[in-house]
Amino acid sequence: MELKRILEIVEGSRSAMISDISGMIRIPAIGPSNGGAGELERADHVQTLLKGFDSVERYDTPDRSYPDVIRPNIVARRKGAGKGTVWIVSHLDTVPPGDLGKWISPPFEPRVDGGRVYGLGTEDNGQAIISSIHAVKAIPPGRLSGKSIGLAIVADEETTSAMGIEYLLGKGCFTEDDLIIVPDWGSEGGTMIEIAEKHLLWVRFTVRGRQTHGSVPEKGINAFRVGTDFLSDLMARLKERYGEENAYFRPPTSTFEPTKASPTVDNVNTIPGLYEFWMDCRILPSQDPEEILGMMRAVAGEHSERTGAEISAEVEQKTFAGKPSATDTEDFKVFLEAVRSVADGDVETVGVGGGTCANFFRLRGLNAYVWQFGGGSLHQPNEYVVLDNIVNDAKVYATVFYRLCV
Ligand SMILES: [Zn+2]
């Protein structure tokens, strides 16, 4: 069968895509730590959509904090004669719906309107589940002469990934011969392929001064004043020392942003003795989070000495970014060409500050690429997916399967 015919089959699947995504989002799949019952029922339903595979396996595992809840992972394969597998990795779980009053129609009742399907989990990550299933459906049956095709449909992406993609990685499902596509982030027009991420560092700063009456500030140490002076000095020095640019990344520099802060005192006429604030740092892979933390503590030490306040810096979260995924492999070139064939504009490879589950692959030295058509409204009330995006994503996956597997 020619590629043209395969793409016509994808194009002809629109109504089946609508009905499949609608059936899926009627079943809630919110993780237990977010107050849900998990993804088991949705996984069983999605499994009924997986027709024509050589094998469909389940890698289920009890939740580590809620052992009564089973976290399901589906691995569906069509076997190829060659080495390696082209993987599309998608996730079953969603975030909670938030304020129900902000939803025009209920989050678990699909609504089709103007080329969009509305409902919780339609874009994140229903788009990827449905587009990958329909891409495989368009590939003619029979033995594949190239790479195998694999769909990994996992749990626990919105919380820890430990019982989802990390669990599958631990089971040895993926190899260095694989092309791994993770459609969990996208730009409008499908023009950006994410190949790298920044390190993530969250730091809590605690400033302990001495509380006193507002009329006699010299008798105390104003933790709020010390903290804000320290913060503005710290931000200027971080910018100066770690201002290096890497054009791959959006934005091109590391970012060091103060985000959360503690309340100080309830009344205006008290000098606060305690102040806390947090920073969210997204650090270029070429820079060292440990060194940055050391510098933060050194600046804190200078301010402590000058003011008499005690300032500490504690790590709340630290995630190292893996090595950027390779762009000089034959597999990547095939993927890039497939993206170019449908993208609306010039295609670029980029790095971002947000964390995706592609990083779990990169930390193990595997190449993973984050791509899909973006432009919906994930993690917001009235989440929707654009039907054209599901179709275009499926065309790209079908093209890659045709070139590398058939
Ligand atoms: Zn997602």
Describe the structure in your own words.
Helices cover 31% and strands 24% of the residues. It is α/β, with parallel strands linked by helices. It has 2 domains: 3-197 and 321-404, Zn peptidases (Aminopeptidase); 199-318, Alpha-Beta Plaits (2-Layer Sandwich), CATH 3.30.70.360. The termini are close together. 43% of the residues are buried. The mean pLDDT is 96. The structure holds zinc ion (ZN). The site of zinc ion has 5 residues, from α4.
Q: SS-based structural class? A: alpha/beta
Shape summary? elongated
What is the CATH class of the largest domain? Alpha Beta
How far apart lie the N and C ends? 10 Å
Total individual domains: 2
Q: Name the hetero compounds present.
A: zinc ion
Strand content: 15-25%
Q: What is the total tally of β strands?
A: 20
Helix amount: 25-40%
Strand order of the largest sheet: 1-4-8-5-9-19
Order of helices and strands: HHHEEEEEEEHEHEEEEHEEEEHEHEHEEH
Low-pLDDT stretches are none
Count of helical regions: 10
Q: What fold name goes in the CATH topology slot of the largest domain?
A: Aminopeptidase
Task: Name the CATH superfamily assignment of the largest domain.
Answer: Zn peptidases
Report on the biggest sheet. Answer: 6 strands, mixed
CATH architecture of the largest domain: 3-Layer(aba) Sandwich
Mean pLDDT: 96
Rg computed from alpha carbons, rounded to a whole number of angstroms: 24 Å
